[in-house]
Amino acid sequence: MRPEFAEYLTRPVPRYTSYPTAPHFQDSIDAETYASWLGALDNAEPLSLYLHVPFCSKVCWYCGCNMKLAARYSTVSDYVDTLLREVELVADRLPSRFNVSHLHWGGGTPTTLLPDDLARVMDAVSERFEIVGDAELAIESDPRTLTEEMISRIGKIGFNRASFGVQEFDPKVQATINRVQPPDMVRAAVEGLRGVGVSAINFDLIYGLPHQTVETLSETIGICANMRPDRLALFGYAHVPWVAKRQRMIRNEDLPGAAERFEQASTAAADILAYGYRQIGMDHFALPDDPLALATAKGLLRRNFQGYTTDQATTLIGLGATSIGRLPQGYVQNGADTGAWARAINQGRLPIGKGYELIAEDRLRAAVIEALMCYGEADLDQIARQQNAEAGWAEETCSKAQEIVPSGIAVFEGQKVLLAEGAEPLVRLVASAFDSHLHRSESRHSVAV
User: What's this model's pTM, rounded to 2 decimal places?
Assistant: First the structure.
């Protein structure tokens, strides 16, 4: 990145896994609205499922997710029973049985469930939905608590992709973030899953952690590359202790500064590329034959709440407390409080806490932001034609964005916007210029890099 862009590294901007982003969801979108949206879906189109487990067996201080410590398994078991009822509630409101092209378990830690409970939920999903033969079935896991029994069951169920939060292998960093997992532990989990037929493995890495250096992160990447995961994601640690109170265990003085964060991010990206991976969007990397790399080459890369994806479905149904769904009509989010979520379901109500109904302007801007986030450029004229926008929309929107984007970070060629050379890490900042909701928000966001 060019030195003159350094002043923008710490600007807070959204991650844009949706547009509008979750802080703009409204409680006027309720269970009745969601039921009507489900009932209007076209069963000729496949959909995706996301199942959320807000429990972990151990707490990581850096984590900003909605999660609870699973001190007693009875709490997790009760959650599973309620999740089964939610599957029934949602399926009952669909016009017919739908095909599922992608299914993703996230959290928290989904493998906190006992193997039998994981299988029970998957059986319930299979009874009410048709999981197509080439569907991607993915599950997030924690190598510290992953058992051989769970590995075996994951293989028998038919999962074909698994994700691990590696973050960093340096012992001092691991101790500071309360996530101690030596490389051999991760390697054993990877080999175990590959041995039962889980052919695709993802690793998540984080830069900007306490006590982390360029050298420790480079060494971590070398160890990871030796295990040859199919995908690597490289995220910047978002220190938001006002949201995630567990992050108060991390001292501000132990965190790298903006320049150090950027050096870690840029060096790590170069290291990953040197090991033969292709860059996907702003923070993902994949082996050349991975579906994500192939989709990128074909112009089919998408972005949703799981990050970059090959998922082409226009409907994503979220199940579980705090999960977010996307439908052609808009977004819905289940309540974050597991107690309120369970009470709604046990009363026969869809547990929606809030949502957002899209208007034409939102769809246009969402397409621009997604194009920027995926490919670093967006043709507003083309997007306007595809969505039958009013005459002059592309020109007016580009003109207003040009006034907001800091000089030199993006190039505007008519109604086309492209990231300037060396400004790729600032793509979220450029995307935010097309976010008409951002200036009305009081939400606080993580820094740009």
Answer: 0.94
Q: In 3-state terms, what secondary structure has residue 270?
A: helix
CATH code, domain with 293: 3.80.30.20
pLDDT tens track for 420-432: 998 888 999 999 9
Rounded to whole angstroms, the Cα distance separating 255 from 386 reads: 45
Nearest to 268 by CA among 202, 224, 211, 210: 224
Answer yes or no: is 10 within a domain.
no
Asked if 431 and 409 touch (Cβ cutoff 8 Å), the reply is no
What pLDDT does 90 receive? Answer: 98
∠ CA 153-183-238, rounded to 5°: 90
How do residues 103-148 score in pLDDT, each as one tens digit?
A: 999 999 999 999 999 999 999 999 999 999 999 999 999 999 999 9
Distance (Å, whole) CA 30 – CA 370 = 27
Q: How confident is the model at residue 365 (pLDDT cuts 50, 70, 90)?
A: very high
Residues 21-37 pLDDT 10s: 999 999 999 999 999 99
CA gap 331, 317 in Å, rounded: 10
Chain centroid to Cα 228, Å, comes to: 22
| Share above pLDDT 70 across residues of the chain, in percent, rounded to a whole number | 97
Handedness of CA 365, 367, 369, 371 (dihedral sign): negative
Residue 158 counted as domain residue:
yes
> Which residues constitute the domain of residue 93?
41-319
User: Alpha-carbon distance 412 to 401, whole Å?
Assistant: 10
Kindly report the number of other CB atoms within 10 A of residue 32's CB atom. 11
* Domain count of the fold of the chain: 1
16 located within any domain: no
Residue 90 lies in a domain: yes
CB 187 within 8 A of CB 227: yes
Read off the DSSP letter of residue 160: -
Closest CA to 379 of 387, 176, 217, 247: 387
